[in-house]
């Protein structure tokens, strides 16, 4: 009877063999089948190698747990291969061959095995029976003196049990979870688990918590965000189960990280524990076990724990050196506040506050006599310490140390023992570290490519600021603030604030507005900024004092927000300058919660991001300035307001095409000339940009000046034509409809017009007929002698004169164009409408004619003589 299943597929590449081994090992250990893990891993390795290396196909691995053992099935997609057939002799084949050994090993190690074929794949399976053992026994350790037992932080050990459903939301929350993290069940049930879990977000290195919850079994460390904002490091054991209806969920057991021994799976026994006298164990395996080759954090954590046990110490720590060996970065601790120390950095060379004992073994009998000798231990109560270097080919790669609360605990002999262990693990640590760096670089490259694409996709300043913050939180930091600098004489201004917990944003923004902004130093790289943490702690202290002094029943109610803000910004805070075109245009501030530090690789990634973000922000600024100038210039080319003409309704609609409303060549004007006479014009200059704007401004202002000099329409346009030609290479040809309107005593309006190359004005009569109101003549800006003449039209009550630019008539949808005829058809439906309604219907018809946005400016001028009332 099958009691558990697990399956995975591995691609046809060399690294899949190691991944398959790890999958089988983790699955069987999670099921408590440690006795057959080694044989299962060996057989799986051979069979998967045959599939992905020799056959060149993907391998499907399935683990089945039965009542009496486990069954492993390995299938590949190459059914044509034959199974070695046993010859008449006892030999199966050449044992030195590089392939074909998987079946021989199955025959030697498995209780039962076999091969199954289908038209699409071949499957090899083997069964490993579990040995007889006492009921309920899985593993046991030796009896230990009380002083050597793991210590708990409280009298009662609390194990939080959190159940997470298929959608990664909290479905169960026990009393111990409430006691540890401060949330009652009603505040957690139904909410995403990501709201409470503080998971490391290093690009390219580790999976997220949602992915970890999908695994059949997972163990490791992360953080849980308490209700007061503090992050508690926890050790977690996840087990994926299914209910009676077949619905999967994950049960998470959580304890404080310092109490991990409560739920941590014991390491598998080393080879020499199996009683075999002829099997020699690698000292490294004996010391550290056999973590996965790419699990650097697991390797380092096991190292410090074994080191502490080996020398009977109170604490142990391991630091890794930077590439230039100038600094050491804390990567693993035990017995110390790991959340406060993780990724903290100390210089290597001797001096105050520096780590002078990094390159050689060193024994410190009493740190009280030599303060600062090991900066990591300052304020921890440790008195004696021994440190040894980790070296690979003579190069310093790290430092391993153990410490005790009692002075004089360690001797040179113990330093040699620790150095021997360090020598055994140094190469493995360096190999895992280089693998982590390579994964980080790949992840960082993908992150920067995506960031560059996002930043390049917008020229809006506010959106650029939001993108900068959203890309850093939570991937690089817990919170982020962006300051902008308008010019060299301006102070940095807080422009955007983001925290991974939205409820902390307001408190963080309020705090940052009360402190002086960081100095805009152009020096590249991240620099520490302690002002937010100092201000937050001072604010929390003042709030606490006020609450205590008040002595009211609600004392402590107001302290919560202050403490939460202090916890949110109490870790390391760094500032990176945003430098573009040799000028500091802003500051990018990144922060961590209490007792947390940035790792050096993250700071380097943030520096790369800040350079790209600075250029994007400056481009957005320049674009905004150009758009503002363009819009201001466009407005200056149009009349500020239209005069009220007695007895005539007037409506104008203007739509500038193009992103940012770039200055175009379309314009209109309506202005008084003398009492009772009004000039109107609508025109279109060839092209866009500054040259077209110059001609547009010349035309509009010249028309007003010349018309008010008493010149008739043809004379006005002749002089304007001469002025345009005088512009020389900057001149542009211009189509223009110019006219003069005079309301009459009988309720009509008399118009005289000159249409110089412009779309003809259309007249709508009361009976619905539409006809051109002028004849086409030569456009301006092309030749000296135009021979223009004016035409007179009388608009009767109810008549409409419609004037448009070619952006209306040349509106296109594929090969179709609205044209003069289409415009006339729309106008014919406007009988009885006001001038405003006529203009609105024309615009609506133009917009609906094509799905794509308009690519040309449009101007619509409608003049209507209203019918007499009553």
Q: Which properties best describe this structure?
A:
single chain; 19 helices; 870 residues; six-stranded antiparallel beta sheet; alpha+beta; elongated; 34 strands
Give a structural overview:
This protein has 870 residues and is an alpha+beta fold. Strands 7-6-11-10-9-8 form a six-stranded antiparallel β-sheet. The protein has a six-stranded antiparallel β-sheet with strand order 14-13-12-17-16-15. A five-stranded antiparallel β-sheet has the order 1-2-3-5-4, covered by helices on one side. α1 (15-30) runs antiparallel to α2. It is elongated. 37% of the residues are buried.
Topology readout:
Elements: E1 2-10, H1 15-30, H2 37-54, E2 59-66, E3 69-76, H3 101-109, E4 112-117, E5 122-129, E6 160-164, E7 170-173, H4 175-181, E8 197-198, H5 209-213, E9 217-225, E10 231-242, E11 248-256, H6 283-288, H7 296-310, E12 315-321, E13 327-334, H8 338-341, E14 345-347, E15 362-364, E16 384-392, E17 395-404, H9 412-456, H10 461-472, E18 479-484, E19 493-499, H11 505-513, E20 527-528, H12 531-550, H13 559-569, E21 573-580, E22 583-591, H14 600-636, E23 649-655, E24 666-674, E25 677-685, H15 690-708, H16 713-725, E26 734-743, E27 749-756, E28 762-764, E29 770-772, E30 791-795, E31 800-804, H17 806-809, E32 812-813, E33 816-817, H18 819-828, H19 835-849, E34 858-864
Antiparallel strand pairs: 1-2, 2-3, 3-5, 4-5, 6-7, 6-11, 8-9, 9-10, 10-11, 12-13, 12-17, 13-14, 15-16, 16-17, 18-19, 18-22, 20-21, 21-22, 23-34, 24-25, 25-26, 26-27, 27-30, 28-29, 28-31, 31-34, 32-33
